[in-house]
Amino acid sequence: MHGDDIRRRLAIMLGDRGKSLIQSLDERFVREDRHLAVCRPVDINSVRQDVNRLDAARLLLARSVSLKSVAAQVGLFPTLRLSESFERRFGVAPRLFREMHAGL
Questions:
Q1: pTM value?
Q2: pLDDT tens digits, 17-44
Q3: CA atoms of 7 and 36, how far apart (whole Å)
Q4: Which CATH class is domain 44-100?
Q5: Closest among 31, 55, 29 to 40, alpha carbons compared
């Protein structure tokens, strides 16, 4: 399976949240020549955390969902764990993220 095929399949499986994940995975590939790509090991836990944070961002845009509920739904409970993880990924607190994107 070629890299483009893998990217396409991930995009289909993960939808919009997969774009960031695919970009992150692309950065882990080292191209030695145009036919050979050597992949560094990917930590499945970091991929899972990235997906959880992307899910959290999507849920935060739904203003009717509380921060506590978002944390529980994405498996980053209590809310302090969600806040720390979210800030590491996006550089802002979840509440500020929600306020910044309130008009969308």
A1: 0.58
A2: 666 666 665 655 544 444 455 556 778 8
A3: 16
A4: mainly alpha
A5: 29
